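Dear Dr. L.,

I hope this message finds you well. Following up on our conversation about the binding site, I have prepared a predicted three-dimensional model of the protein together with nicotinamide-adenine-dinucleotide. For your records, I am including the exact sequence and ligand specification that went into the calculation, followed by the structure tokens. Please feel free to forward this to your student if that is useful.
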Amino acid sequence: MARKRHTYLMKVGTHKYNDQLLLCYSPVTDRCMIKVAINGYGTIGKRVADAVAAQKDMKVIGVSKTRPSAEAFVAKSRNFPLYIADISKKSPFEALKLPISGSVEEMIKQADVVVDATPGGVGEKNKPLYEKMGVKALFQGGEEHELTGFSFCSDCNYREAIDRQFVRVVSCNTTGLCRVIKSMDTAYGVKRVRAVMVRRGSDPGEVKRGPIDAVVLDPITIPSHHGPDVQTVLPHIPIVTMAMVVPTTFMHMHAVQMELARPATREGVLEVFRRHPRIGLIGKGTGIGSTAELKEYVMDLGRPRSDLWENGIFEGSVTVIDNDLYLFQAIHQEADVVVENVDAIRAVSGVVKEPDVSIRMTNEALGFKPLR
Ligand code: NAD
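The resulting structure of the complex is given below.
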């Protein structure tokens, strides 16, 4: 059973946010903040920590590392208390003047929600600890759906995540697919989806990963795991996906085809995308036609770490022929799941009941601005 950390918040009162009444949400009282621990301070964990720290209703109570690294120095520079899984390995940190606040268990004791951002498969090993300590935990897309029995995407199933103890935030590719499919399913109905994923070979900092000179079918067989993973969130959508890995680090690129149930026009589809809080339309006028130019553009716009949190849909690619929609979208693997984690924290905490309210709060705190 998860600990009931928020019962006192009910007494704090209500807060109005864009005409919606939120129960027990107060942006000013530290006591009312959701206390978040980040177990695994790597590519995803460090971004989630910064995004949480930017929210008015959340507080980072600690982040964890296994051994000293550049990221441990980043945590220190952000004033995030640093915890370690194995407290007997404290001295190498202290030798580098990296103060350790305690063990991961001590960190979890103070947390309302743990974001487990350890490498795929490690989250499964950590789950018994979260169970023992009765804390709520989010896992990432590197874990199997079966670990939690519930896979999350903010605008698809936020309400179903409310008050759950364990939630898996789906992977970057699945998040990108779920967002665009759900938007079209709501507007027109989706009969079937076919999508090809051209995946980045590694994250920019992963110097030991490849491929260096190959297009790798990943896997050779069809479908790739992405289609079934979308169905953990949107079970009624028939979808077949194919995937390959290429020697690039910036982003994934998806070629998506959707058969829509009701008649659609290109302009109508673009209007749905324009209104979507997590879809960024890359305007024709920008001249951008690659992940490299898009990354440069996002960096020039001043986004932290040049992160693209939304789906980058190339406006010029959006085409409707009969009832079939075709498009290209860029998915920034390091970034799109970050905002989903922030929403999932609110959902499992049960503090904000409406997905659009949480999405707006998350986006505003991060300073989302349209791409065009
Ligand atoms: P990463 O390797 O960059 O970071 C993981 C961090 O966890 C590292 O700092 C590592 O030192 C630390 N760690 C390892 N074992 C630990 C333990 N037992 N306790 C505490 N910390 C531990 O990995 P990542 O890319 O951030 O991936 C994390 C999760 O997010 C995975 O499930 C992955 O599939 C998923 N994900 C990754 C991406 C991506 O593109 N990087 C995108 C979406 C989802």
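In brief: Residues 39-45, 64-66, 71, 85, 117-120, 122, 140-143, 171-172, 203, 333-334, 337 surround nicotinamide-adenine-dinucleotide (CB under 6 Å).

With kind regards,
A. P.
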